[in-house]
């Protein structure tokens, strides 16, 4: 899997308010509470007056606890008990019960993926908490709001809410709440890749959990520490913490959490290269997920097992698990898991020489990944916008406060009113400068995200992808199975490399050359070996140390082939050179073709075509990555000595090395 499944204490994120020690749905406790509820219903019918009211008050508590027990495992049951809780609390005028019901509804809508509605209910619960002096409800509001902002990627606002929860729990001397808050803050830092800060907060949470004997919290914190280490590629440390979490989950029979944790461990072992242990972990996850009917974990575990069998060339077994994982992923619309399943199925079918099925799965992978990529890009841009709006609002409040302070000062000291007025202008001007600077920062990040999306789309051009697959399919039809397998394997490596590089801003020259070799092999196949290519590096290049922005060179190379070489008769040659004058000089990449030249191309295509788009994408990314303006693209038309005949085009990309 591409991302670790993050183990979360459900009570940590949504149900801290319930102060229930259960970590997963406990059917025995649910049965006990429901039997108790039935007894109260029977007993209540025989009583009247004050005793009846006491029964109703007790029933409110039972309904609240039942909602907590069902929680994320059965949101509809949670909603039903929240409804009963609200109606009964309103009937007997119990405001705290009403606030608790609103908290339950907030949790329900969070689970259902409706955060705006959830925030409305959380806010209503908060207002009742303020009215009744119920600090526990106030802390819950901060915590639950933090969850929603965290899931939206608005880490600044999430941190603000979690710190509010922590402060309130400290006032309440609620050690469990404090521990939950520290763990939530750690998760925010980990997501921001501030791993040392994350570890510090996780350890604070862990020590509190140990002090109060909260086993679910201890296990959850170990799992969080494991995830934090995994993200730093510290696989042995990650496994140490995960193993400690497993021990606690086994001792306390926390089945749902175990399936996710084993899935995490499978990923860690796989990335570490220990496929035998990875398989054991995935199978453990699958067994528990089937017992608990956790279809998301079942999907991930099936695909994990399938990947290990594909690596081991146990193809029938791989197909069995991958198909099962794919069907479960489709059912829950888990796009990331679907794309992984399609990608691995294409490889398995290719190894089995079932090229038609390989072709179909590769098409499905491209389609699913495009949908996933678009969704992720939109989310990233939304995060930037939310963060910018949050900072702008904060700056505006600061400006208003400064203005009022200066105006108050001016009222007291009328003799220096002109100075105060000048101070207002300075304060507002400074704030406007701050807001404008923030705006430029977030616009820059948004533009960079958009340019990266365009660059990836340029590399994963559907015409290129499908034409390549069609060329491979034609080999199959011509019974050239060995060649078909060879090129499908190359194509698979190429698309995988594109996806890997898309997650990086900079890659080494070595990585870029390997990528270009794969790309040019496929292009050569598409055009039936119609052109020759060569990639050279000079002695001043350190291929494993020198870096280049990802997704920069390929659009220019594609341009040279499509618009330069393929419109020319006769020999067609492409030369790519990586050079630099000395260790302090910028890196220079030269893409040179002996094609028809730009003048001929422009005479054929009067309107701006793919060539200008490719260059504009590359120029825009260079400009965004290098604010000093030292990166540049220089285009040279190659001419004969008499300047009459075009000899091709040379594009030079100059890139200073990052600090």
Quickly list its features.
single chain; Serine Threonine Protein Phosphatase 5, Tetratricopeptide repeat; 5 domains; disordered N terminus; five-stranded mixed sheet; two-stranded antiparallel sheet; alpha+beta; 659 residues
Question: How would you describe this structure to a colleague?
Answer:
By secondary structure, the protein is of the alpha+beta class. The protein folds into five domains: 147 residues, Alpha Horseshoe (Serine Threonine Protein Phosphatase 5, Tetratricopeptide repeat), CATH 1.25.40.10; 79 residues, Serine Threonine Protein Phosphatase 5, Tetratricopeptide repeat (Alpha Horseshoe); 80 residues, Serine Threonine Protein Phosphatase 5, Tetratricopeptide repeat (Alpha Horseshoe), CATH 1.25.40.10; 86 residues; 142 residues, Histidine kinase-like ATPase, C-terminal domain (Heat Shock Protein 90, 2-Layer Sandwich). 73% of the residues lie in helices and 7% in strands. The chain has 25 helices and seven strands. The strands form two sheets. A five-stranded mixed sheet has the order 2-4-5-7-6, covered by helices on one side. The longest helix is centred in the middle third of the chain and has 58 residues. The relative contact order is 0.05. The N terminus is likely disordered.
């Amino acid at each position: 899997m591409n991302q670790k499944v993050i183990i979360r204490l459900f009570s940590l994120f949504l149900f801290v308010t319930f102060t229930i020690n259960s970590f997963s749905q406990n059917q025995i406790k649910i049965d006990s509470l429901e039997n108790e509820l039935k007894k109260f219903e029977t007993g209540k019918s025989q009583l009247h007056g004050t005793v009846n009211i006491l029964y109703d008050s007790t029933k409110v508590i039972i309904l609240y606890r039942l909602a907590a027990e069902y929680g994320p495992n059965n949101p509809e049951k949670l909603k039903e008990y929240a409804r009963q809780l609200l109606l009964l609390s309103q009937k007997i005028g119990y405001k705290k019960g009403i606030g608790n019901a609103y908290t339950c509804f907030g949790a329900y809508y969070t689970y259902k993926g409706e955060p705006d509605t959830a925030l409305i209910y959380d806010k209503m619960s908060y207002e009742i908490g303020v009215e009744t002096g119920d600090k526990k409800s106030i802390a819950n509001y901060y915590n639950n709001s933090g969850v929603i902002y965290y899931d939206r990627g608005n880490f600044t606002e999430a941190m603000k809410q979690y710190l509010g929860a922590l402060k309130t729990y400290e006032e309440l001397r609620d050690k469990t709440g404090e521990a939950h808050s520290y763990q939530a803050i750690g998760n925010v830092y980990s997501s921001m890749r501030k791993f040392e800060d994350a570890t510090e907060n996780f350890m604070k949470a862990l020590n509190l959990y140990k002090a109060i004997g909260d086993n679910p919290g201890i296990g959850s914190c170990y799992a969080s520490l494991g995830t934090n280490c995994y993200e730093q590629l510290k696989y042995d440390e990650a496994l140490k913490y995960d193993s400690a979490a497993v021990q606690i989950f086994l001792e306390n029979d926390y089945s749902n959490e175990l399936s996710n944790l084993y899935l995490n461990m499978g990923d860690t072992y796989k990335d570490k290269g220990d496929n035998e242990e990875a398989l054991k972990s995935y199978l453990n996850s699958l067994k528990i997920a089937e017992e608990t009917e956790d279809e998301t974990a079942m999907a991930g575990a099936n695909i994990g097992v399938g990947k290990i069998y594909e690596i081991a060339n146990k193809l029938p077994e791989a197909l069995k698990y991958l198909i099962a994982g794919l069907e479960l992923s489709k059912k829950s619309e888990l796009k990331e898991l679907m794309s992984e399943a399609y990608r691995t199925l294409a490889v398995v079918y290719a190894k089995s020489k079932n090229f038609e099925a390989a072709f179909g799965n590769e098409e499905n992978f491209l389609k699913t990944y495009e949908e996933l990529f678009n969704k992720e890009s939109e989310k990233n841009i939304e995060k930037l916008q939310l963060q910018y709006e949050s900072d702008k609002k904060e700056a505006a409040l600061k400006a208003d406060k400064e203005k009022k302070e200066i105006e108050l000062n001016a009222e007291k000291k009328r003799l220096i009113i002109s100075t105060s007025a000048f101070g207002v202008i300075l304060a507002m001007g400074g704030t406007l400068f701050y807001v404008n600077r923030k705006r430029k920062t977030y616009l820059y990040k948004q533009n960079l995200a958009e340019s990266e999306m365009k660059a990836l789309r340029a590399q994963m051009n559907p015409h290129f992808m499908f034409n390549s697959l069609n060329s491979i399919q034609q080999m199959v039809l011509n019974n050239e199975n060995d060649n078909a397998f060879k090129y499908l394997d190359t194509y698979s490596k190429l698309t995988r490399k594109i996806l890997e590089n898309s997650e990086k801003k900079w890659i080494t020259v070595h990585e870029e050359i390997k990528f270009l070799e794969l790309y040019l092999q496929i292009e050569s196949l598409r055009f039936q070996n119609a052109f020759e290519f060569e990639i050279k590096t000079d002695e001043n290049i350190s291929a494993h140390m020198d870096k280049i922005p990802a997704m920069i060179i390929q659009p220019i190379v594609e341009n040279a082939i499509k618009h330069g070489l393929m419109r020319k008769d006769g020999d067609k040659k492409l030369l790519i050179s990586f050079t630099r004058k000395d260790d302090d000089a910028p890196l220079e990449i030269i893409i040179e073709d002996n094609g028809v030249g730009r003048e001929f191309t422009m005479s054929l295509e009067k309107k701006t075509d793919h060539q200008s788009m490719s260059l504009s994408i590359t120029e825009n990314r260079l400009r965004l990555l290098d604010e000093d303006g030292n990166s540049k693209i220089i285009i040279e038309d190659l001419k004969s000595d008499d300047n009459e005949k075009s000899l091709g085009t040379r594009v030079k990309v100059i890139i200073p090395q990052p600090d």
